[in-house]
Amino acid sequence: MTKRLAVIDSDLCVGCQSCMFACTRRLGFAGLGRSCILAKSVGGITRGFTVIVCRACPEPSCAKVCPTGALQFREGGGVRFDAKKCLGADCRLCQQACPFGAVFWDDQTDKPAVCVYCGYCAEYCPYNVIAVEGEEEANAG
Amino acid sequence: MPDNPLHRVLYIDLTNQQYRVEEKPHLFEESIGGTGVAIRLLEEECPPGIDPLGPENTIIFAVGPLTGLFPLASKTVAMFKSPLTGNLGESHAGGRSAVSLRLAGYGALMIKGASESPVYLSIHGDKVFFRDASALWGMANSHTIGRVIREREPGSGTRTIMRIGRAGEQLVRYASVITETYRHFGRLGLGAVFGSKKLKAIVISGNQSLEVANPKQYRKTYDEIFQAAVNSEVMQKYHQVGTAENIEPLNAVGGLPTMNVKKSRFDSASAISGEQMAQQYLGRRIACAHCPIACIHIAALREPYAQEPYFYKTSMISYDYEPIYAMGSMLGVSDSRGLLKLLDDADRLGVDVMSAGVVLAWATEAIEKGLIKSKDLAGAELKWGDHQTYRRALKMLVEQPNDLYRALARGVEYASSQYGGVDFALAFGGNEMPGYHTGPATYAGFLMSSRHSHLDSAGYSIDLNSNNPQSASEISDALIAEETWRQILSSTVTCFFARGVYTQERIAQIFDVAGCDVRPELLLQIGGETLRRKYAFKLREGFSPEKLRIPQRILETPSASGIISESLLRETVSHMNQKLTSL
Predict the structure, then answer these.
(1) Domain limits of chain B?
(2) What is the pLDDT of residue A140?
(3) pTM, to two decimals
(4) Which residues of A touch B143 (CB under 8 A)?
(5) What residues pair up with B120 in beta bridges, in sequence order?
(6) Does domain B249-396 sit in CATH 1.10.569.10?
(7) CA of B64, closest CA in chain A: separation in Å?
(8) Using the beta-carbon criterion (under 8 Å), do A39 and B290 form an inter-chain contact?
(9) Is the dihedral of CA B366, B367, B369, B370 positive or negative?
């Protein structure tokens, strides 16, 4: 099974955003501007939280609509992103295509921000809401 | 750090619907952020002697250098002139308020003036919109305000929605501002200041990145703090049963204010204890943004509809130690369902639950003593434990249908000055008391600390320590030392619950990583300077330690440390005044 981030049980989510901060911190920044995961309320905090992150679809809608091949299918599900090929804010088709809203936007690069399935965020989830599943492919590039 | 977004202050003028941003690097370098920065902005912008409910009053929200960088730095400091006490208003809240403000690109937000008609502010990064809120004004339930704005505004997941309820609109002097449904700028009447400015709500969204000088060191330091927070016993109390865990131990030592402090033990304490609430009702736990502890405890209250079989509603109601004290033991309410409904009402209406509980407790005793009649209360025959009547009276406190309710809406200090019963009017410096009848240090703190709050200097902890100081000068020194240090916590701004994690040593270590230009060896000096400024502001606005009223009641009912001596209290107040004016 290809490595991906799984949402195990969003009912355990307390909305602490530790995963979101981890995702931007992995790139050497504080704050949230580069995060590819979002824990937000389900129509108000009264009702709890949902976790939005790339689920590594076998047939990703985002890659299907990418006109330049910046988003490529990954073997086993999900995508790989090549920023050099991306048209940036002029396009945004990938963002519109993802039914989960899991293609985020990095305002600094003005390009999409998509999960790279590294699992760094899961190391900071205190309540086991999210976890890494599967293993990295040997030939993954 | 050059161009640090923390140094940006967003000024909003409600009268002219204009805004601007000013860079204030020196201010943040000298006073860190949060409370340190807020008091200096208040000194600058709030003219002496103004009406707290007039357009000249100034509201400041400030965050600090650790906000958005490190966990447990989740609080925002609000500062204003208090319409309840007439001097320094300061209230802290979490939710997403702090992270959203910082990641929208600001260290502080200042609001001046007043709008002619109701507005809400919509702040998204550099853009500020003044939105008409006329249709939202007058709605019965503050939760609905949150819901409407949530649907209408962008930024789901990384925004804060601060709002007032009817109490703020009606200028109840202890009206709260509610954020993210379950957190409050509760004390000292910020909600009334919002109401006086016709400001119904503020939504702020922000999700920027912040640069750090040394990413590797940043990640290492982050991990140390994160591990200390989630693994250490320091935070366990807040994590599991929550603050409500204090009900049973405070009752056991005779420090739980009960029935307007006629007693210091509540016979039914176990029925409203944290353990009992968790077992019967705990439905969810949630966290402030960037805090893994999740201390916010939410009860799920399931109720049938009387007229419709097989129809139920489930209300999600937050509880903590102080609300349980204020609407539970203080009013003799032992029915936990009734208690939860009172807490829910307080949130829907947008009143500070502590002040409201103390006001209702005073009114109950005033009826008992014949000072007021139930007809003056529009038929609300208040009796200890009768939560249904308390719910009716709470709504009328907000709507103020007659003179007595109008007096009660100004706080218990004012109401007792009009109707008598000052001996059992439990306000200190004009602020209704928190839930600790533990001894002299607690009350000296209520009387003299800058917010008249248990959180300023934790006097209860001094009272209950086995080696507690006995003399006035020792108590005074201990309170001021604690309050001085807490100025640093609330300037950085970290949660007081995390004070065991953010030790002086650790804060000094991480300032460099956080790009904070403050020299760590100056920390205590800056804390003292901030405290001095806050006290000077209070004196400027008419606070007088000599005129402080000590309610007879607290000297009669034995506390957790026995009978409290008035002369010891007066002497401690005098010592504290000397120290605070010579800082």
Answers:
(1) 5-205, 249-396
(2) 44
(3) 0.97
(4) 46
(5) B131, B201
(6) yes
(7) 13
(8) no
(9) positive
